[in-house]
Every structure is written in C-alpha cells, then in structure tokens.
Write a structure and sequence with these properties.
Chain C: Its main location: membrane. The complex is a heterotrimer of chains A (about 400), B (about 525) and C (about 375). Chain A is an alpha/beta fold and about 400 residues long. Chain A is built from 13 helices and 14 strands. In chain A, strands 1, 2, 3, 4, 5, 6, 7, 8, 9 and 10 form a 10-stranded mixed sheet that branches. Chain A has a 4-stranded mixed sheet with strand order 11-12-13-14, with helices on both faces. The longest helix of chain B has about 40 residues. By secondary structure, chain B is an alpha+beta fold. In chain B, about 45% of the residues lie in helices and about 10% in strands. The chains are: A alpha/beta (about 400), B alpha+beta (about 525), C mainly alpha (about 375). At the B-C interface, helix 15 of B face helix 6, helix 7 and helix 13 of C.
C-alpha cells in the first residue's frame, strides 16, 4: 500500500515537471501590440492595423533616437476576427493584445456604424475595458498609427495623453458603452486629425513638411454611428458644462483696455436644472468657476474691484455664448444629446421620463436651454501689476 | 528481498548485561578482577593500587585523561597519606576517607559494580578499600573544554556575548546565573544506551504548563537509541511532525534566549556534548524573532521586524512571482517593464522557468560551498560566484539579467531570517513553489501557498498550534508578532504559559506616565 | 482523535467566507437585473432570510446540543420522514459544492488560463480543498483566520483604487423601479445568505455553543457589508453595464488602474480571491463529508473525504454539460438557487422547530 502511494505521488510530481504547458507564453515569442486601428475599405471589408513595439532595454533608450521603436502591420478581413487571423499571418510572433491601450477608428468606419465592431470587442478575451477609443478625422486609422512620436517610449501613449486635456475627451470603452447604454445621453469619442507642420530649422528633413497628429475635439455618435464633430472650441464648451475644468484657460478681449486678458481656472462647478411642465421642458445649465489672472494685455489694473467686475462680466458672457452655441449645434445639427440633459430629466422626473424617453431624440431639439455662467477672478497671480512698468498716474487709478 | 526486518525485533545494543546487579565485594582483589574483566582491552583505564601506611590496600581506578591528575595527586593522595595515622581505629577508615575528600566537591558511594563502572566512565575516580564492600566515586574532572565565547551562528550587535559550550554543567550554570530563583527546576536523565548522554530539562515551576512538562518527560523517556551525539538527535525523536520542513523545536546557542523563553512558559532541553539547546514549544513567529528585537527600543525594533517579514516573503515568493509574471501573467506588468524584460530575454536560449531554476540551484550550491571554505576565502568566493559568474553568464547570453537580479535578491533576503533552521524551510519550499509557478502561473503559486498554509495550520508544537497567536487569534499575543510592544506594554504572558501566572509586568510602568518618584 | 473546536472568531470568519467566497464576483449582476440601479437597496433587504435561519437554527441547536441537523431531524421527525430531509441536504450540499468548484475553475480558466484543460484546474483546486477538509475543521478555521484580513485589505485596496472611476449619476434616480422590483432583486442575495444554514452543521464544533447566535449575527453583518460595498462600487463604476457582465466585480478588477503601474492586475487579484473561494469550498466539502458520515453513521469522517472529493470532481465534469460556459451556472443562480436555498435554510429548519415545539408541549402536557 505504501509503495503504491509513493508511486502515485511520484507520477504526480513528474506531471508537475511538464512545465512546457498549455498557457505558457514566453515573452520573446510575443509581439506586444500597443494600439490598433480599424478602417472600413471601399468594398466593405475591414482593415485592422496594429502598432507593435520593439523591445529595447531601458538603459539604451538615449542612444538611437532616430530609429523607430515600433512598426505597423495591417491586414484586411470580412470581420474583426477574420482580419485578426490574417494579421497573425504576417508576423511570426504571437500578437499579444493585453497591453493595448488605444483603438483608433477611421472616419469612414465610424460613419458607417460601429455595432459589429463593438460586439466583437466585448466578446474578446483580451479586450480591456480601459482601452481608449478615438476617431481619426479625415484620415485612415492605419496612417495615424504610422506617425513617429517624439519623446515617448510607448508611442500609443501619445494618443491617450493628448486627450487628457480640457479640449479633449479621453473615453474608455467602458465609459463609451455605459454612456451609450444610458437613456438620455449620447456618447462622444475623442478625435484626431492630421496636419502638415512647417519645417523648422536645419534639422528638418529635406523633403519638407512633416505631418503630425493633432487633437481635433470629439466625434458625436448616435446609435454607434458617427454624426459629426465638435471642434476644439466646441469640445471645450461641452466640457465646461459637464466637467470640472480646473487647470484650463479662458481668454477674452477687453474693449475698454484694448487688449486680451487670459485667466486660469482654479475651480469650477457645473449643474443641470431641468424643469418639466407638461410638454414643455426647460433646462438650466449653470457653470460657476473661480479663476486667476495670468496674462493681462491691457493697461487696466485688475486689483481694482470695478475692473474685476468688468472682467468677470466679459468672461461669463463669453462662456455663456460658447456653451449656448454648442448646445444649439448639438440640438439643431446633430439632434444628439451629448450633454446628458435627458439623464438629468430622468433623475429629477422619473415618472415623466417614462413617456419622454421613447421619443427623446425628437424632444431634445425642442428643449429650451438657458445657460448661466458665472466666473469670478479671485487672484492676480504672483504680482498685482507687471513689474516692468513705470509708475504713472494713470495706472494707479 | 528481505530488508533485514528480523533485526527490528532485537534489542538496542547496549552495555553488557552481566554487569548489572552485581554488588561489590569486600575482597579487594575480587573487585579488581571484576573490574579488569569489564574493562578488558581498554588500555586507557588506569588501575592504581596502593597500600596505605596502615597496611590497607586501596585501589584507585580511573580513565586516563578524564580526571585532573594533578588535583588527584596533590590533594587526595597526599591528604590521605597525612591522615593515615587514624586508620587503625575501627571507623578510622571511614573518617580518614571522609576527611581526605573534603577538598573535593562531588563524592558519592558506589555499592554495585555497574555504578562503579558508570562512575569511571563519567570521568570520576573510584576508590576501593579492602574489607569494605562499597567504594567512593570522586569527581575531579579536569578535561580541557572550550571556553565560553560568542556563538558563531547567532551574533548580535546588542546583547550578551556568551554562548553555551559542550559541558552540561557549565551550561546549566549559565542558566542559573541569570535566573537566581529556586523555581528554576532542572531535571536530568540519561539517554542513549551506549553514550549515556545526560539531558537536562529546564523549566520554571508554576510558569510552565504541567501538561507540557508531562508531555516532554514522556517523549524523552520513550527514546531508545544507542548513542546521542547532538541535540539534533533528540529533536528529531521528540518532534511532533518530523517530515515537515518547518521546525517545531527551536534551537539556540544563547542562554539569554533560553531564559527569555523559560519566562514565557517554555521548556528547554540541554544535551551534554552539544552547545545547542532546544526550546519548545515553538511557533512560526518565533522563527522570525531575533534577540535584538527585545534589547533595542520598540520603536526602532518594530520597523526592522516588518522589514524582516517582508523579506522573508520575498525570499519565498520572488522567484516564483517572477516566473509567473514573465511566463503567464504578462498583463500584470507595466508595459515598459515588460519590454525591458523582453529585450533582455531575447538573448537567452532557456525559458524563464529553466533559467530561474538553474540559477537558484547554482546559488544554493554556492552557499553550501561557502560554508566549508576556510574563513579567509569564504567572502571572496561569494563575491566571485555571485557577481562575476552572474555577470559573465548574462554577457555570454546564457541567462537574462532580470533572473540574476531576482536570484541575488532572494539570496540576500534569505539571510535575513534569524533562525537558521527556520530559514532552511524557506530555502527548501522555494523550489516546489517555483515549479508550481512554472506550471500554472499565479494560480499555481496560489495553490502552493494555500498548500503551505494548510500545512502550517495543521502543525502543532507540543500542543500549541503553530500559527498562534495569529490563528487562533489572541490579541495580547499579537503584541509580539508584527510589532514589538515596549516592555511596559507586554503585561501578560502568552498562552503557552500556565494560566495562573499570566501577569509578568504589572501595567503602569511606562516611564513618562507621570509617576517619576520626584 | 479529539475533534478540534472552533473559536468564536474562527466561526464568524468561516461563515462569512462561506458565503462571500464565490458570490462576490457575480453579486452585482443579479439584483441589478431586476432592480436596476437600486440593486444596493435589494442587498440591504436580503439578510432577512439569514436572520431567520440563524434564529431558528440556534434555537434548535439549543434544544439539541452537540447534534447536527441530520441527527436532530432524525429524533424530531422519526427515521422515515427525516430520510427525505437528510437526502435533501445531501443533495443540496453536493450540488452546491460542485457548482462552486466549477464556478471557481471556470473563472480562473476564463481570466488567465484559456488553454489549460479545466480538469487540471479542478484537480488542483479539489486536491488542496480536499486536503483541508481531510485535516479537519480546526485547520480550515485557522487558514480562514489568516486569509480573512488579507481579503479585507485587498477589497479595501480595490475600493480605493476604483474611486477614480465612480460616477454618482449611475445611482440616480433612486427607487425608480419601485418596491416589487427591489424585492425581486433581493431574491438571489437572500438565497446566498441562506447558506448560513451551514451553522446547523457547525455549531457542535464551536467551543462555546451558547455564543453561536451572536457570532452568526456578526457574520451576517459582515456579509451584508461586503455585498453592499461590492454592489455599490460596481454600480458606480459600470452603471447600466452591470447587468450585461456575467461577473461585474471581475470586470471592475480588470478595469481599475492606478497610474501606469498598477494596471491590468487581474491575474494577481484573481488567485487571491481564489484563496478565499478555497476556504469556502473546503468548508463545504467538510460539511458534505460530515453530512455523509452522519447519515451513514460512520464514526471517522476522514475516511469519507476522498470518495466525496472524487464524486464532486466527477460531478463537475458532468454537470451542466449541455449549456456552454457560465450561462448555465448563471441560470442556476437566478432561478433554481434561491428556492433551493430557501427550502434548506428557512423552510426545513422552521418546520423542524415547529414540530419539535409542538411535541415538547404535548409531552409537557402529558407529564403534567
């Protein structure tokens, strides 16, 4: 009996020695994908492109700065899964998607509709909901992946980090899905465009201008189809109404002082106040922010309360106008509730919402929106007046 | 194939049974003949016959080299000679004998041959007189023993530098010096039929639990062995689970550690011939405690304890963690780290698990080799082995650099475990965990950890669960596990001690608590 | 061999983990299916079954000290009727042990080991849990004492890291769907909380059986707090997607990130949760062996462990073979499980108590 037990134990131990087992993936056999792009071709097939990083040891990062640290391969297929299989045919290493951060969708594909693509995303095992999705405006996603990036070890991070600004919106797939699944709000996706940069200095390549990627605001979606874009000004306005904009800047022209003034936002609060009376819906959008003066191009002294009041009024009216303009664009042109007005109606008037929700797309353009923005300048930076000016009587007043 | 199982029913080889039970004779030449036949072919036994001035024959038997012959000659023979004038009186012999032996501290009467033989073997001198049917065994031991010096295996920065030596009496003396109380009880017994090694059980009455003492005595008494050379023999024969990698009996070479444990209700077993004392019961957390924790202030000792616990886990888990992260669970690594590892692994021909296994085995071999080298060369070898070979292997492309880092860190971390036998457990267990991690990644590692946890939870050391005081949870016991509460806070003894004497430091002793006496 | 006894704290931990072990992954999905964003309110209502079960079982245990439910059902109902009761519990325990092992193995396979055959994962899991069940309840209790603080630390870490992704609007409007949906949503969590019927088997192993009621109430409290926390953070982070994921908490763990370093930590967190599931499985295996040994009146429970484990392993390969993947298990949870659990935890003990009370009254009247 004892001998049988030991024999059994020995067999099991040998099994454990079989360390060439099923799920082991050696790192040197992997091609680490950090970004993918999806494009729709004219014949209805998909092109999937992936950006693969070339591993370089950390210490030798300074040596070769002009050698590209990544490469891109692309393949076509009928569906996402089909193109993925064909992609694997082009490279001997196993494509490894768990480190992917960014998915870029070409404009044509976005306008066509993302239903099937998102369906595939959710079923994939190595899809991480934290991946960010972006739209490529006026360009193919594949081309976007190809552009060289300065000062970034992992090129895909540039996409992610570009949109983490007030003028952009970095949506993860989870957020996009949640927004799409919520009634009363339509999702948006950050967008990029390609612009030609003028050659600067002798180190530029001799062929002339180098194209590079620039943030373009957001793309507005409805039922997973791209309707259009908000440029960066409109995106900023949209973000003012929906997010905390601390850290961003506002610039206004002050006619009394004949110059431009810029302020930096320290705190901002936003809110929606819906009012439903029968069939009439009014939405009050309120934005309150506190900011600090950072650049004064006028001769006015902003430590005077009167001047500050003037500046506040100007800032507030500028903000109000830009938000109102964006709301109007979303209502008239896109008929898509990107702000989430419907959601706030739902929260405030649940019983009313039951009858409004079905036709919200039609009700939304009829909503009267009043924007109230209040900006107050609470500081003037390090100094009260610029240090280089000569003191003249006019300034002190 | 018979494995000589028939021999299992025999007797443990021991001394000649003919010696027991035979009394000494009044006739001295008969005694001499008996003793000569027992000690046949033992050329180091000296049988010195003399006759006193009173014409009475005297025999002194001893083993050359064991007693102090100078003492013997000067004090005893000369003393005896000077008292010889009393010998013709009827009890003159007795009185002369008693008087001569006053300078000697340990004397006893032997009436049986076996007792005489025992005493001679222990290094005493046995005096036999004609006409008297008993002898006197006089203990004048004078062999050269090792002096008390700092224990090599448990050095401290702060704390006493005395360590046990091989002589049992000196060791128990070191204990007595520190605990001057009659409650410190020391019981001796002999184990080993041929070696007759003396074992001392030391405990503090009313602090050590009665069941524990009973258990210890019972286990020691049932040992049947031919020779006991080191306390390790005793340890293996009385331990609860001999096949567990974790020791259930603590070894120490320091008397202050022993006394500290006795004050907590533990029992110490000291073996003659070995400087290592056994302290039982032992818990898992004892293995992670060093004596310096108690001598330094608690606020500095506690973070060092945390460091120790952290690095103990590192020494156990780091290689397996590395293998599972690199072979199975790549998502968990930050991308830049993964890329770095990928580029360095590119060169090496082996998969990560094989690399790590190879390097771990090499490191263990280096460690073992380092123990046997003479002192001067030892450190050079570790430097050569660790740095140069590792570096050369990386540059030749055999091994990737992260593996060398992992193995080196693990090696350093394993030196941080204060108790050597406890550290051996971790060194051993690293390998199955490594194999499991190579087999199933983090899940395999987790299964291994759970397996070790089950084993630890089922282990008991003389009745105390091994993971006490963490499981079963005892809040006041926790004062000594993750933190070292200052001495004025450690009011109660742990549950290993008997209940009625639970208080050791009354509360309110904090120095700055206001009552300074001025 | 002296049976080991559990201390109070060990008992609390074991009962808590026996419920939390596997349910923590998919707890958020089920109430949300019916109650939407008010799933957290459903979770607050769910402990009612547990309190009821504890009250009844401790009352029965007080009347019949040192006996498990198998034994006192025999003495209350007589051998014939109680065979039905015993068979029911046996079935319940076996099926549930099988479902737990399959759920755990499927989870691990889905997250990080897609290609490994499920049998290997199941074997490793059952080997470890079977060893723990073989070693006895004291060992499981002590392991639980070590694992419980680790579980709390990890859960708190996940909570803190996920704060970044919270969006309070997902909780609004509150109580929109009305009370009926909330109550329906509470059905599945209450089924889970009904697993506290394990105390009916474990009270004889307590070293202070009189304190069982208080200890069990503590467990229910801990379980409810954990469930509430899980449901809340899943709803706050995922909003309407909660119902779409089979494992919302798992999806949350895959989603959270702290800077660039602590991302994608699911291969690390899952096995830690598996260790919690291991305690649950070990407890269930132990109780299943206990049940079998009491029914068949075998004195030494250890010898039964191996057959029970093998049976469970065979069960996992056979169970739910027709329906693929996790769908069958999810169906089981939503429809079969609450009813089965209610019967085991509430209906049967209440019947036992009532019958016992009537008989004892009748006996008292007789003697009077």
């Amino acid at each position: 009996m004892k001998r049988r037990n030991t024999a059994a134990a020995a067999v099991i131990a040998c099994l454990l020695m079989m360390t060439g087992c099923w799920d082991r993936k050696e790192v040197k056999d992997l091609a680490i994908v950090t970004a993918s792009g999806l494009d729709l071709n004219k014949d209805g097939t998909l092109t999937q492109s992936v950006q693969i990083v070339i591993p370089t040891p950390m210490q030798s990062s300074g040596s070769s700065s002009d050698a590209k640290s990544f490469f891109v391969i692309a393949a076509e297929g009928k569906t996402l899964a089909d193109s993925r299989q064909r992609l694997q045919e082009k490279i001997h290493l196993k494509l490894y998607y768990s480190h992917r951060r960014v998915i870029i969708i070409g404009e044509r594909m976005a306008r066509h509709g993302l239903e099937s693509v998102f369906d595939s995303f959710h079923r994939e095992m190595d899809m991480r909901m934290r991946n960010m999705v972006f739209v490529a405006k006026g360009a193919a996603a594949e081309s976007l992946l190809n552009y060289p990036v300065a000062l970034e070890a992992i090129p895909a991070d540039q996409f992610k980090n570009l949109h983490k600004q007030p003028a952009g919106r970095a949506t993860t797939i989870m957020n996009f899905d949640a927004t799409a699944a919520t009634e009363g709000i339509e999702p948006t996706m950050g967008a990029f465009e390609v612009i030609q940069k003028q050659a600067s200095g002798p180190s530029a390549s001799s062929t002339g201008a180098e194209p590079h990627i620039k943030l373009y605001g957001v793309g507005v979606f409805k039922e997973l189809k791209l309707l259009g874009f908000f440029n960066d000004e409109e995106t900023r306005a949209m973000n003012w109404a929906t997010k905390n904009m601390a850290g961003s800047f506002l610039t206004v022209y002050v006619p009394q002082g004949n110059g431009n003034v810029s302020v930096q936002i320290l705190k901002s609060k936003h809110g929606f106040h819906p009012l439903v009376k029968g069939n009439r819906i009014t939405m009050g959008v309120s934005v309150q922010s506190e900011c600090e003066l950072i650049e004064n191009g006028t001769k006015l002294d902003f430590s005077e309360p009167a001047n500050v009041k003037l500046l506040n009024a100007l800032l507030s009216s500028q903000l109000t106008q830009s938000i109102a303009a964006t709301v109007k664009k979303s209502q008239r042109l896109y008929k898509a509730d990107v702000f989430g007005f419907g959601r706030s109606v739902h929260a405030a008037y649940p019983s009313e919402w039951k009858r409004l929700s079905a036709a919200w797309a039609n009700v939304y353009p009829e909503v009267e929106v009043t924007v109230r923005a209040k900006t107050s300048v609470i500081g003037t930076g390090y100094v009260k007046l610029p240090l280089h000016r000569k003191e003249t009587k006019g300034d002190v007043e | 194939m018979r494995f000589r199982k028939h021999l299992f029913h025999g007797m443990v080889s021991g001394p000649d049974p003919d010696v027991t039970g035979i009394p000494l004779e009044p006739n001295i030449s008969k005694n001499e003949r008996m003793l000569k036949s027992v000690f046949e072919a033992c050329s180091d036994v000296v049988i010195h016959s003399a006759s006193t001035p009173g014409q009475i024959d005297m025999l002194a038997i001893y083993i050359a080299g064991l007693p102090d012959t100078k003492h013997l000659d000067e004090l005893i023979f000369n003393q005896f000679a000077s008292r010889s004038r009393d010998l013709d009186k009827p009890d003159g012999m007795e009185r002369a004998v008693q008087a001569s032996f006053i300078p000697v501290s340990m004397t006893k009467k032997v009436a049986f041959l076996s007792e005489a033989v025992d005493s001679i073997l222990r290094g005493d001198v046995v005096f036999l007189f004609d006409g008297v049917d008993y002898g006197h065994a006089v203990s004048v031991q004078g062999t050269e023993r090792r002096a008390i010096e700092e224990p090599a295996s448990e050095p401290v920065i702060r704390g006493p530098r005395e360590g046990f030596v091989e002589c049992l009496q000196i060791n128990t003396g070191l204990l007595r010096v520190r605990l001057r109380s009659a409650s410190l009880k020391i019981e001796t017994l002999s184990i080993g039929t041929l070696s007759q090694t003396e074992i001392a059980i030391a405990y503090i009455k009313d602090i050590a639990k009665d069941e524990l003492l009973h258990d210890v005595r019972h286990r020691l008494r049932r040992i049947r062995i031919d020779g006991v050379l080191e306390s390790g023999y005793i340890e293996e024969l009385i331990t609860d689970t001999p096949y567990s990698p974790f020791p259930q009996i603590q070894n120490t070479e320091r008397p202050d550690v022993v006394i500290g444990s006795l004050l907590e209700g533990k029992v110490a077993v000291i073996t003659d011939g070995s400087p290592i004392a056994l302290v039982l019961p032992m818990t898992f957390w004892t293995g992670l405690q060093a004596s310096e924790d108690y001598y330094e202030r608690s606020i500095t000792a506690t973070p060092i304890r945390w460091l120790r616990i952290l690095f103990t886990s590192v020494s156990l888990f780091l290689p397996s963690l590395y293998v599972s992260l690199v072979s199975y669970d790549h998502p968990a690594l930050p991308t830049s780290l993964l890329l770095s590892i990928a580029s360095s692994q590119r060169m090496s021909p082996f998969p990560a698990i094989i690399e790590t296994l190879l390097m771990e085995i090499t490191f263990e071999a280096l460690r073992e080799a380092g123990l046997r080298l003479p002192k001067g060369v030892g450190s050079a070898v570790t430097i050569v082995g660790g740095i140069v070979i590792g570096q050369a292997a990386v540059q030749a492309g055999f091994i990737s650099a992260p593996v060398v880092i992992v193995v080196a860190t693990t090696g350093i971390a394993s030196f941080i475990i204060p108790r050597y036998n406890f550290g051996l457990a971790f060194r051993l267990l690293r390998f199955p965990l490594l194999l499991l991690a190579g087999f199933m990644g983090f899940f395999g590692l987790m299964i291994g950890i759970i397996g070790i946890l089950i084993h630890l939870a089922s282990l008991r050391s003389f009745g105390t669960p091994y993971l006490y005081p963490l499981a079963p949870l005892s809040m006041d016991g926790l004062k000594d596990v993750f933190i070292r509460k200052a001495w004025f806070g450690m009011n109660l003894r742990p549950r290993t001690a008997a209940e009625q004497n639970g208080l050791r430091i009354p509360p309110g002793q904090r120095p700055d608590s206001g009552d300074r006496g001025d | 061999m002296k049976t080991e006894k559990l201390t109070q704290w060990q008992f609390v931990i074991m009962i808590s983990i026996s419920v939390l072990g596997t349910e923590i992954f998919n707890i958020a999905a089920f109430p949300a299916q019916f109650a939407g964003q008010d799933a957290w309110i459903s979770v607050l209502i769910a402990p009612i079954t547990s309190f009821w079960c504890i009250a009844v079982c401790t009352a029965l245990a007080r009347r019949y000290p040192d006996m498990t439910i198998i034994e006192y059902s025999r003495s209350i109902l007589g051998s014939w009727v109680s065979t039905l009761v015993e068979a029911y519990y046996l079935c319940f325990l076996f099926v549930y042990a099988t479902v737990i092992s399959k759920a755990l193995a499927d989870l691990i396979a889905m997250i990080s080991h897609q290609l490994t055959p499920h049998a290997i994962i199941l074997l490793m899991l059952l080997a470890v849990c079977g060893t723990a069940a073989w070693c006895g309840i004291g060992v499981i209790g002590r392991c639980g004492e070590i694992i419980f603080p680790i579980m709390i630390v990890i859960a708190t870490m996940i909570l803190l890291i996920s704060i970044r992704d919270w969006n309070v609007t997902y909780l609004q409007p509150v109580a929109e769907k009305g009370l009926p949906s909330i109550l329906r949503g509470a059905s599945v969590p209450s089924g889970w909380l009904g697993e506290t019927v394990l105390i009916a088997f474990l009270i004889p192993f307590l070293n202070q059986p009189g304190q069982a009621r208080k200890a069990s109430y503590y467990s229910t409290l801990i379980i409810t707090v954990f469930m509430l926390k899980t449901v809340l953070i899943c709803t706050l982070a995922e909003g309407p997607l909660v119902t779409k994921f089979p494992f919302p908490y798992a999806a949350l763990i895959r989603y959270i990130s702290l800077g660039d370093m602590l991302e994608r930590l699911d291969p690390v967190f899952f096995p830690i949760w598996v260790s919690v599931g291991f305690i649950k499985l070990a407890t269930f295996l132990f109780v299943a062996c206990l049940c079998v040994s009491r029914i068949s009146r075998v004195k030494n429970q250890r010898t039964i462990t191996l057959p029970v484990v093998l049976l469970v392993f065979a069960g996992t390969t056979g169970i739910m073979k027709d329906a693929p993947g996790m769908d069958a298990i999810l169906q089981f949870y939503v429809y079969t499980f609450p009813v089965a659990s209610f019967v085991a935890a509430n209906a049967i003990p209440t019947v036992l108590l009532v019958v016992d009370w009537t008989y004892s009254r009748r006996r008292a009247l007789h003697e009077a």
